[in-house]
Amino acid sequence: MLKILPGHVSNLIAAGEVVQRPASVVKELMENAVDAGAAEISVSIKDSGRTLIQVSDNGCGMSREDAVLAFERHATSKINEIEDLEQLGTFGFRGEALASIASVSEVTLRTRRAEDETGTEVKISESKVNSVNQIATPQGSIFSVRNIFYNIPARRKFLKSDAAEYRQILAEFTRIAITRPDLHFHFTNNGVEVYNLPPANLRLRIQSILGRELGKELVEISVDTTIVKIKGYIGKPEDARKTPGNQYFFANGRFFRSPYFQKALLKAYDNLIQEGHLPSFFVFFEAEQSRIDVNIHPAKTEVKFEDDYAIFDILHSAVRESLGRNSFMPSIDFDQEGAPEIPKVKSGYWVPPPKIDYDPLFNPFFEEGKFNREADRSWEPIKDSGAIFQEEHIVQKPVLQVGSRYIATTIKSGLIIIDIIRAWERILFERYIKSLTMESADIQKVLFPAQLNLSEAQKSVVDEKSARILQFGFDIRRSENGEYLLTGIPDSFSGEIERVDKLADTLINILPEGRGDIGAEVRERIASTLSSAGARQKSGTLSHLEARGLVDALFACTEPANSPSGYPVFSLLSVEEIEGRMSV
């Protein structure tokens, strides 16, 4: 028999799409604060949002009647008619968020309009209004959400760790704070202020949230067409990472995800970054509201553009042009008429190294006044010295470096050419796998610890998984004044700690993927990423001793022929092939 579900049951079902975790509550309440015209927004959480989420603003506030009505499903002030969906200029419009939040938590709202002398306090839980009181409160609104999912134990049980939920909340806070750099934002966690972000320009806002080092990696993009206006920042090719982290698209100030537009952006980086790597980007699209559809999913992270094919090409061209303008790739300049001709240095010009003159026949033992074997008749040769002295010398195979990427050496069957970076990838990969299996790593302490510029999300990873990070050979410690210092690095790395700093950053970005014990698949993925990043730190000219050691270490590996990514590490040129090339 069919029946209509009671209101509180239907609210619980609908809440599953809108309120998936504490971060969903932060997102919805912050968006409401922005829509209310607030100039200052404060977010405070306790226990990663499980105990308390409080969002306050100095926006327009609500009347007593609206404060009560706001928790009814589909109660909204954003739209009135169906035509309004084509001209959405606000974050919210469905009227579902507050009703969904109130159905799975205990909510207290304090609000006052500028023209009212007193405000209103509404207490509600399980979609039922418990009390409505007249109170003294500042202009704006204060939402306090306590004990999320208290009435749905199964949902509360399946929330992730405090650190993981905290990072999700930071991600939602970051998305809104970046899209509105003109507003003042505060963020407090367990009574400790994490962010105090006064109004600033976009670049400074990005640096304030994600770190000063990221700001140095960014270059500007800007293009204005009749279809769309695109502006923002993209990362330099050399700073691309294998793990996703700082990739943001915004449409008319609204964050959204788009594999389609990300493909356009990455296409512009062809031959500039390694396969599988992602650059940072903060790209803002501005178009007429009628050309954008955000009414696709309750989470509102999907956006459909009317001219998405054209925008694909515009974005690709804008990124390509910016990379060329900043000398990351060859750019074409057609305005050459009348320009002076500058002679070019011949590419084949070679400067010979200085020669050192020495006498190969020089022997100090035969100089006058020195030891003379024939003159000293008391000397007698050692008899039966044994096998250890039978060989006059041990012949070492020659090793020659070709350019900065390859080394060549001889083997019995011919000549072998080794890719230095891929060889280091294989060596480091097997060392990491071994250290993970043995749950130990050799660490060398550094004389001068390096300060790591970490985001708040990265700090939470270090605090939560310090033992796992130590297992990889990185000793990161928090100082008394709250700084995070790199005090130890893997023994296989050189002492260039400024370069290893980036490798530690890569590790921190990977670790959130693994929960609890690391399985074989995750272990190999982490080891592959770290070995790839570590190998790039090893590039450059090698001494003969270093090249010899690299060859020995490579062929001590279990699978020396291929890198962890499956590419060949070396190429063999047989004696027969050499003879064939030399034949007339």
What is shown here, in short?
The protein has 584 residues and is an alpha+beta fold. Helix content is 32%, strand content 22%.
Going across the major beta sheet, what is the strand order?
A: 5-4-3-6-2-1-7-8
What is the tally of beta strands? 22
Oligomeric organization of the protein chains: single chain
Estimated structural class: alpha+beta
InterPro entries: DNA_mismatch_repair_CS, DNA_mismatch_repair_MutL, DNA_mismatch_S5_2-like, HATPase_C_sf, MutL/Mlh/PMS, MutL/Mlh/Pms-like, MutL_C, MutL_C_dimsub
GO molecular function: ATP binding; ATP hydrolysis activity; ATP-dependent DNA damage sensor activity; mismatched DNA binding
Organism: bioreactor metagenome
Protein name: DNA mismatch repair protein MutL
Walk me through the structure:
The chain is an alpha+beta fold. The protein folds into three domains: 7-190, 2-Layer Sandwich (Heat Shock Protein 90), CATH 3.30.565.10; 204-325, Ribosomal Protein S5, domain 2; 418-571, MutL, C-terminal domain, regulatory subdomain (Ribosomal Protein S8, Chain: A, domain 1), CATH 3.30.1370.100. 32% of the residues lie in helices and 22% in strands. It has helices at residues 7-18, 22-35, 64-69, 97-103, 153-157, 162-179, 202-210, 212-217, 259-267, 308-325, 420-438, 456-464, 466-471, 497-510, 520-537, 544-554, 575-582; strands spanning 40-46, 52-57, 106-112, 119-125, 128-135, 140-146, 184-189, 192-197, 218-224, 229-235, 247-251, 254-256, 281-286, 292-293, 304-305, 399-402, 406-411, 414-419, 443-452, 475-478, 484-490, 570-574. Strands 5-4-3-6-2-1-7-8 form an eight-stranded mixed sheet. The chain has a five-stranded mixed sheet with strand order 9-10-13-11-12. Strand 1 and strand 2 (52-57) form a beta hairpin. The longest helix is centred in the last third of the chain and has 19 residues, at 420-438. Mean pLDDT is 78; it is low at 331-347, 375-379 and 382-395. Residues 398-542 form the MutL C-terminal dimerisation domain. Pfam families: DNA_mis_repair, HATPase_c_3, MutL_C. This is DNA mismatch repair protein MutL. Residues 206-324 form the DNA mismatch repair protein S5 domain. One of its GO terms (cellular component) is mismatch repair complex.
